[in-house]
Amino acid sequence: MDAIAKATRQSFRMRGRSYVALAFCPVVPIAGWLEEIDITLARSPGFFAGKPAVLDLSAVDLSQSAIAHLIKSLEQRNIRILGIEGVDAAHLTTSMPPLLAGGRHCLLVQNEPKKPESKPKPISLLLDSPVRSGQSIFSEGDVTVLGSVASGAEIVAGGSIHVYGALRGRAMAGSSGNVAARIFCQKIEAELLAINGYYQTAEEIDVTLRNRPAQAWLEGTNMKIAPLS
Amino acid sequence: MAKVLVVTSGKGGVGKTTSTAALGAALAQTGEKVVVIDFDVGLRNLDLVMGAERRVVFDLINVVQGVAKLSQALIRDKRLENLWLLPASQTRDKDALTDEGVGNIITDLRTKFDWILCDSPAGIERGALLAMRYADEAVIVTNPEVSSVRDSDRIIGMLDSKTVKAEQGERVEKHVLITRYDSARASRGEMLSIDDILEILATPLLGIIPESQEVLLASNVGSPVTLNNVASAPARAYTDAVRRLMGETVAMTVPVERKGLMNRLLGRRAA
């Protein structure tokens, strides 16, 4: 018993933390202001999700019941108010978020919440059959082919290209400006290899490399091709 | 269950029509009820190789357009009673073919025949696309040279994307038929080897038809090579191919011309 009592007597620690919060500044008429929030939400439903929000009431003069109603309206839109500022403490009840002071201005990156929606991570493409002559494969991510790429076929990838067979057609990796993209193949007989626009045709590819497993990558503006060993 | 088989290649002059006639006749010889359809509208040839050119009254386009009934356009072979031909029109072109019209004819033929062989025109345009459109199986005719192999590869890609089966998420069963193969030249490295071709096409082999004068001889007399001289090397190769099509396991060989003892002695003396 003594041991437990001693443990509880230990002083607890507290640490300071600062967070960037969105400050909502309602203007009259409140109904019109709420409508604008609805329009923003309709465009990107996750715009305020998970963001700490503060209510700045300095621009309006609201009664206690009006403030309560406003907080409720925001809650219905999934916006939870952490604190309130710019209002007399007498206007707040204990059930409302606490009164805050000493908030400072900071820059908000406007596009930040939209980013995950507008630019999804490029998905890699897996092809489990040979790429036939005349076929054109395009992917923003990596492309992996479990077979050969025929003469007269082409693969355009935003990322790297992996061919687990003979590469006899054209392979263009890093097509959207990715200089780190590479091309790998089990057997190099390519008509053309390109990375980020820098290319080599069949004629320029070293004959000693032909029919061997190889990889191509970019060093500055030079394309390098070496056997895989 | 009727099977629709397209004989195709992409490239012209590799032996599609010869192979269609030879395979059709060999299938009919086994007792199957067979129809061969010429899809080469405007450049019809199958009627000549089948020896039916003087009996053509109505053709595929007439049936597509509803001018004639299917039964009026079908021509029965004079030698094999279960072999039929649906000829192409020589005066029209491939634009006269419609997807719906071809679909209706194939559906109709499926109820009447065991095998429906479609002789595709060369190229990758409308005629070739409609010939393969309703196929269950495909024979890709390839010569042992690079341009033919690359065109075949292109056609295989189309069989995997432009056919009804492919659009339904199924697969057209594909077979490679190598024609005009010369063992001697291949062994000297003057031709692509069988292994090279199969490695590029990644498709199972149906048969190897040797280069032979018998093929031209048979065409000139209007007879499928499998009917004209059953014992000839190409005829035996086509017959083996047909047995494989029907599911038999037949060892893959390249038949050679049989020479009689006298021929061999004479040949040696002359050499």
Which radius of gyration of chain B do the C-alpha atoms yield?
A: 18 Å
Largest interface comes to: A-B, 15 and 13 residues
Number of strands of chain A: 14
Please estimate the helix content of chain B.
Answer: 40-55%
Gross morphology of chain B is globular
- What is the helix/strand order of chain A? HEHEHEHEEEEEEEEEEE
Give the overall shape of chain A: elongated
What's this entry about, in short?
The complex is a heterodimer of chains A (229) and B (271). Chain A is an alpha/beta fold and 229 residues long.
Description:
The complex is a heterodimer of chains A (229) and B (271). Chain A is of the alpha/beta class. Chain A has helices at residues 2-9, 30-43, 64-76, 115-118, and strands at 22-24, 53-56, 81-85, 125-127, 136-139, 143-145, 154-157, 161-167, 170-173, 183-188, 192-195, 198-201, 214-219, 222-227. Chain A is built from 4 helices and 14 strands. A 6-stranded mixed sheet of chain A has the order 4-6-8-10-13-14, with no helix packed on it. Chain A has a 5-stranded mixed sheet with strand order 5-7-9-11-12, with no helix packed on it. Chain A has a 3-stranded parallel sheet with strand order 1-2-3, covered by helices on one side. The longest helix of chain A is centred in the N-terminal third of the chain and has 14 residues, at 30-43. The N and C termini of chain A lie far apart (68 Å). In chain B, helix 1 (16-29) crosses helix 13. Chain B is globular and about 55 Å long. The interface between A and B is medium-sized, with 15 and 13 residues.
